[in-house]
């Protein structure tokens, strides 16, 4: 089961490489009208991966102009193929999108804001920074990347934020001190962050340790590359009478859908937990790639989010489906 979506055709009008691995796409809807969006909004994009149509999520970047959508795609050579497929698109190609959707909305009115970005996680925070500066809010941004060349949108952000922007480059041995940054925030400040799952988990731990309200911490992930590379793994579902392989290029959620297993899903990024299901046993290793389950739940290995999480070896799973409950 999926939430009802409306899809529309858009045309690629501009392609710009803004770092060696980040490409910006300007999309024009077929009707010439792009509804306004707020910071944190994203599009769902249909993309062909290995001959099969799949859905990917991309944050909208910058202020809307009413006629175009702007997204940025990081090429992930070790990923499932979606980003590489997006990089094969050319000017005037048509792609179908759904949205804008927003599960990461900016709440105005806080006394202070800290924006923390890791890598391509900068994309939703660009619009937030622009909005907060326009509102004359007290805002700072911390922005980290592996190399200086991968700091996308750096020049416009420097022009916008000045000394309120601080960058961190891993290969130059520069790292964020989340505990210190959070301790320096005034009461009721809000922190918005997007980036790799390990970074988000470190921020969540520091925020919890500080005793601040969890409602004042907002985050979004663009997915996790996991603890080990994606490989094919086996899934057994006794009550369904199923025994099948999940290819390295396919998510478990997609494989379940192909096998006719009814699931409920929404974000497909391991954030909302709507698709979480029971793990009966693991013969091998479970690779949690979500930010929904707690560290305790992940350590227990009795639940997983099939939209992002994977395994090595064999997983025995159960779903919410029951044969004795009428549809």
Observed structural traits:
16 strands, 3 domains, Ubiquitin-like (UB roll), five-stranded parallel beta sheet, alpha/beta, 7 helices, Elongation Factor Tu (Ef-tu), domain 3, six-stranded antiparallel beta sheet
Give a nutshell description of this structure.
This protein has helices at residues 82-87, 122-134, 154-161, 178-183, 197-210, 252-258, 295-300; strands at 8-19, 22-29, 42-49, 52-59, 69-74, 94-101, 113-118, 139-145, 165-169, 190-195, 217-221, 233-237, 242-246, 277-287, 303-304, 310-318. The chain is of the alpha/beta class and 327 residues long. The protein is globular, with a radius of gyration of 20 Å.
List the helices and strands and how they pair.
Elements: E1 8-19, E2 22-29, E3 42-49, E4 52-59, E5 69-74, H1 82-87, E6 94-101, E7 113-118, H2 122-134, E8 139-145, H3 154-161, E9 165-169, H4 178-183, E10 190-195, H5 197-210, E11 217-221, E12 233-237, E13 242-246, H6 252-258, E14 277-287, H7 295-300, E15 303-304, E16 310-318
Parallel strand pairs: 7-8, 7-10, 8-9, 10-11, 12-16
Antiparallel strand pairs: 1-2, 1-6, 2-5, 3-4, 3-6, 12-13, 14-15, 14-16
Structure description:
The chain has 327 residues and is α/β, with parallel strands linked by helices. It folds into three domains: 8-101, Translation factors (Elongation Factor Tu (Ef-tu), domain 3), CATH 2.40.30.10; 113-221, Rossmann fold; 233-318, Ubiquitin-like (UB roll) (Roll), CATH 3.10.20.30. Helices cover 18% and strands 34% of the residues. The chain contains seven helices and 16 strands. The chain has helices spanning 82-87, 122-134, 154-161, 178-183, 197-210, 252-258, 295-300, and strands at 8-19, 22-29, 42-49, 52-59, 69-74, 94-101, 113-118, 139-145, 165-169, 190-195, 217-221, 233-237, 242-246, 277-287, 303-304, 310-318. Strands 4-3-6-1-2-5 form a six-stranded antiparallel beta sheet. A five-stranded parallel beta sheet has the order 9-8-7-10-11, with helices on both faces. A five-stranded mixed beta sheet has the order 13-12-16-14-15. β10 (190-195), α5 and β11 (217-221) form a beta-alpha-beta unit. It starts with 7 loop residues before the first strand and ends in a 9-residue tail after the last strand. 38% of the residues are buried. The mean pLDDT is 90.
């Amino acid at each position: 089961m999926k939430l009802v979506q409306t899809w529309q055709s858009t045309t690629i009008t501009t392609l710009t490489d803004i770092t060696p691995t980040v490409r910006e796409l300007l999309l024009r809807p077929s009707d010439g009208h792009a509804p306004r969006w707020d910071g944190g909004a994203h599009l769902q994009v249909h993309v062909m991966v290995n001959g099969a149509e799949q859905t990917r999520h991309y944050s909208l970047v910058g202020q809307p102009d009413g006629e175009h959508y702007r997204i940025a795609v990081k090429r992930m050579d070790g990923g499932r193929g979606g980003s590489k497929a997006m990089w094969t698109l050319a000017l005037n190609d048509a792609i179908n999108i759904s949205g804008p959707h927003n599960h990461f909305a900016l709440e105005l009115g806080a006394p202070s804001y800290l924006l923390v970005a890791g890598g391509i996680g900068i994309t939703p925070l660009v619009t937030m920074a622009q909005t907060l500066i326009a509102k004359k809010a007290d805002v700072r941004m911390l922005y980290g990347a592996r190399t200086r060349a991968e700091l996308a949108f750096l020049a416009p952000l420097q022009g916008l934020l000045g000394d309120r922007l601080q960058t961190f480059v891993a290969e130059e041995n520069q790292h964020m001190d989340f505990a210190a940054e959070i301790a320096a925030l005034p009461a009721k400040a809000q922190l918005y962050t997007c980036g790799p799952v390990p970074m988000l988990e470190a921020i969540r731990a520091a925020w919890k340790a500080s005793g601040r309200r969890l409602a004042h911490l907002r985050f979004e992930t663009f997915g996790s590359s996991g603890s080990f590379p994606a490989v094919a793994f086996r899934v057994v579902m006794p009550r369904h009478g199923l025994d099948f392989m999940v290819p390295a290029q396919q998510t478990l959620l997609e494989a379940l859908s192909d096998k006719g297993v009814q699931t409920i899903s929404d974000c497909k990024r391991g954030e909302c937990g709507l698709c979480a299901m029971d793990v009966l046993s693991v013969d091998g290793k479970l690779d949690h790639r979500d930010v929904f389950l707690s560290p305790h739940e992940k350590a227990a290995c009795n639940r997983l989010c099939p939209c992002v999480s994977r395994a090595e070896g064999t997983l025995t799973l159960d779903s919410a489906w029951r044969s004795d409950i009428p549809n």
